[in-house]
Here is the input.
Amino acid sequence: MEAALAAAEAHTGAIDFELWVTEKSDALLRFAYILTGDVTLAEDAVQDALTTACARWGRVSRADDPEAYVKRMVVNAHISWWRRFRRREAPAAEPTRTAPASPDGTAARADAEAVWALCATLPDRQRAAVVLRFYEELSYAEIGVLLHCAEATARSHVHRALGVLKNTLSREGAEDA
Amino acid sequence: MPEPEYGPEQELGPKIADALQTKAHTARGLQARGLAQVARKRVRRRRQTLIAGSAAVVVALSIGGVWGAIGGPSPVSTSADSSSAGGAGDADSKEAAPSLPGPACPEQHPILTAGSHEAVPAGVGLDVELPVYGLQACRYRLLAGDTMLLGAATFNATTAQQVVDAIKVLPERNPTLPVFKCTPDTARPSEAIVLRFDTRLGIREIWVGYDGCSSAGFFTGSRTFGLYAAPLKLFMTGTVRPTGGTYLDHLKGW
Here is the structure.
């Protein structure tokens, strides 16, 4: 009887996980793509996070916000790659705007492309901090926890990134004018 | 959205948020199919690997046990066989150390050849501000020509962090301990303890000196903390508990 109950419970857990992944995978992949800037890295990060989540699905599914919980795992998976492969943070010496400013009504879209291209030139941690701040709308304290650094460091990552973006955009703006 | 905090954030925040949202919703080529199935497969494989690993450990321990039984007592004692170790008489009065499985203390450790419990090699010492996830205390005999591992004990993350917290608040020197004058050959301690902490950077160590006559305390290579009883009584249990020491004999409450 107990075995049957356990099997039933395991079966229910399995269905929940499958359904949840089906429902949330798009959002998770989009978040990972924004975070990593690369389709393959994004898929790997989400797969790693879901593997971890699957192993402790009981706890994850009981969390207040399982999606946020798994997104944290995605960030951790990404950070762990930084550690595992010692991916060096190698910002471009001089960030360049790759999308030309458009004089017609598509200027807003061109700006978005330019910001995205500039984000790609940011060091990994700065980029992650920017994504967590402006895409996930987290506070600096929350970003610090996710990136395993102090709140002040998280703030500094974002502010440095903003400084670079602002300088580059205004320089390009002046050149366009 | 959290409140923007200063000019550039106010100015660029919405632009960046918009760019990221746009990109997120126009991303192409993201493959969402099969994620759950792959996750399940990986978890199953990990569990199988874990079970196989555990089985191998059990077999190895069994073989080790049989070997120990027929080969005579090992010179290395651990907290698990504290009753057979010298100096374990006091262990009865101490709470049993919470132990976790972990790699054994190395029988050949740099402290055996360092000549001093102060000479923690660069990059090995613990940054006491780093969170720790476990602790292994290894007690070594340092007598020239007769060095050996005397005892070992493993502690969980809570105790490990308590030990670090108790050490990092200590002053550089305990002024209540005596200052000895001795020749270099007699200054060498007869034993010392190496605290090996699990950290996110790997194993990091604090060397504990309580014998000899040149120095005593907790050494990280870059910092020195005086020898006080508070941290000692957290890990000096079982076979890691010495019977005494030049400085320990002048310290109360450990």
Q: What stands out?
A: The longest helix of chain A spans residues 2-36. Helices of chain A lie at 2-36, 39-55, 57-62, 66-84, 107-120, 124-134, 140-146, 151-176. Chain A touches chain B through 48 residues (CB under 8 Å). Chain A has two domains: 2-84, 107-176.
